[in-house]
Amino acid sequence: MTEYQLEGKSLEWLLESATDAMIITDREGRIILVNPPIERLFGYPRQELIGKPLEILLPERFRRAHGVQRTDYFAQPHARTMGTGIELFGLRQDGSEFPVDVSLSPLKTEQGLLVMATIHDITRRKQAEEALRESEARMHAIFDTAVDGIVTIDESGIIERFNPAAERMFGYSEAEVTGKNVSLLMPSPYCEAHDAYLAHYLQTGEKKIIGIGREVVGLRKNGTTFPMDLAVGETRLGEHRMFTGTVRDISERKQAEEQRDRLLQELESANEELNSFGYVVSHDLKAPLRAIGSLADWLSTDYADKFDDEGKEHMRLLISRVRRMDGLIDGILQYSRVGRVKETTVAVDLNRLVQEVIDLLAPPPNITISVVNPLPTVMAEPTRIQQVLQNLLSNAIKYMDKPEGEIRIACGAEDKQWKFSVTDNGPGIELRHFDRIFQLFQTLAPRDRVESTGVGLALVKKIVEMYGGRIWVESRIGKGSTFFFTFPRTAATANTTEGKKA
Questions:
Q1: Block means of pLDDT (10 residues each) for the chain, length 502 residues?
Q2: Which is the CATH superfamily of the domain at 346-488?
Q3: Are 462 and 446 in contact (CB under 8 A)?
Q4: Residue 318 and residue 292: Cα distance in Å, rounded?
Q5: How far is the C-alpha of 292 from the C-alpha of 323, rounded, in Å?
Q6: CATH fold of 141-249, please?
Q7: Which residues of 143-166 are buried (b: 16+ CB within 10 A; e: fewer)?
Q8: Does domain 5-121 have CATH number 3.30.450.20?
Q9: Are 479 and 428 in contact, with CB atoms under 8 Å apart?
């Protein structure tokens, strides 16, 4: 085997000591020497490479051009990097390709002129470059399509980038503002203060000074101003610092806030008027009603023998209608207070509350009210939950048409809520009335036959919905009705007392 010498040193020794992948070829392009990194890079044992043409390490598309380049190189040998302006690839033994950088150095040996190629696998660099290109492409796409205005400035406050959203927002084209100070986009006093703010930040690093997260005012090209949210971020390219401001026009939001404030003021005024109305109703209306009721009771008692049957009926209707009007006033007041007049929310044991409601209603002997299963303890305003149960039970009692009336109260857990039911075996409700019965002042039976204000179920619905629940009815004519309502479950635990009858 020929030993090649370079200035008295063995070329093989030089290659073996190198960490880079190196290969030496002669004038005809035959491989003379390779080092271990070459074996690892291309996957060939060195014995298979020695004496082979260098072209076996090149993809087919490069081989013809490589022969011409080799001839030109040996005509004027000098150290240089191959592939300037083009991409070079190596070919492994398994047929896979990989991008490479190749540096050439001429070697004058006793056996003649040779060339040494130093080869670097640049796969990772190429991947990083591709990732960078993709990232830049995404950033450009975001910059151009962003809904918010994006303005990029340098350390002196000079505008370098101005995206389409910013153009629409401020009325300037990017060309009009590029190279100008960003204070151009600010009305007084922001305009005068900006440069000082920026200088202070550059000196102290206090980000809050330049407006991160601040609500400021922008100035359009036509001289009009608008409120905007401004967020500023900083990037560094070596010693060069850039600031990117993201701007959002919040004119609509500010208008909505102003409208909301107006509505809140109107609502407060309406509440005050409603409170005044409640006072008038409870005092100025109920006082004469009580007087009329007392007078009617006195007349019907002291002059009972003076009235014929028709007169007695008229007096009965007068007294019942006075009482209905009194109940209607109470119902309206109760309805108006729901959600407006707050009580303290406490843990309410529904087993105890139901018993209190039953005792208060005092159902007739022919009606039995039973609690099917233990009821939970809920977090609620006691008066509100009592109104729900009292109205549902009183309706079931009031409209009962069976000689043996049965009313059952039950409850079960469903997901994050309790589902309550009040079932009776009364007359039932037609399907077409299912929605109507929950409307204010709606009754199904004539008021002179069954006393009702038409407020009770509307009040129940309003209370249940105030707590985030819902109420509905299922019914069959002649078989009875079941009113269902849901109520949020809380940390309060269900009472384990056995179901009881009253």
A1: 56 77 90 90 91 92 84 78 71 93 84 87 86 72 77 87 90 92 86 73 60 69 90 76 86 87 80 64 64 77 79 77 65 60 81 89 90 91 86 89 93 90 91 80 50 71 89 91 90 40 38
A2: Histidine kinase-like ATPase, C-terminal domain (3.30.565.10)
A3: no
A4: 9
A5: 10
A6: Beta-Lactamase (3.30.450)
A7: beeeebbbbbbeeebebbebbebb
A8: yes
A9: yes
